[in-house]
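User: For my dataset I need records formatted as: sequence, then structure tokens, nothing else. Please produce one.
Assistant:
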Amino acid sequence: MSKAEILIIDDEPQIRKLLEITLESNDYKMLQADTGRQGVVMAANHPPELILLDIGLPDKSGHEILKELRQWYNKAIIILSVQNSEQDIVTALDNGATDYLTKPFRSAELLARIRSAIRRNQSQDGTPMIEVGNLQLDLTARTVRKDNELVKLTSTEFNLMALFAKHEGSVLTLQFILKEIWGVAYQTETQYLRVFVGTLRKKIEDSPNQPKHLVTESGVGYRFQ
């Protein structure tokens, strides 16, 4: 089985060297670009399995590069950036980033995010079954089981659960979730979403007040893991 190729678009040589050591020691093949334009050209000529993208690039903003890539590239893009404001994170996620990790980052956490994103790339083949930890979702039968026991969900709760499961490991913004489940008119109804998330946690978590599956990303949204 060939190594998954990861393209990193970052102008910092030290970061690229760190990533080269980390990725190659974990059986990934690394491609490098030090400008946004070079990265777009490389991705177009030879689409990688995943892209690691910095926001602070010398020629164009990483936000612009992200939007440009998302016109045609449909695999995972993880942002690596020193910019850690809620607005930067929300903007990147709304523009199509799969995930967002701030520098400095822990190599173990980055590798976990990469594995999750690549796993999701490879599972987007129409399979009706999704397994996350002790939870099993059947998208055809519209059922959820926890430890093989059927969990009773309403239609909306199942739709919400399926959305989270399909994006397992990624942060979903409040606005994205509201638009996907209830429509554009509900994008400001964040309290509405919190009620449904609270109900879901009571049904799928062992300890709803200390969730291990449906985790809050403060000021941004939720991550299902």
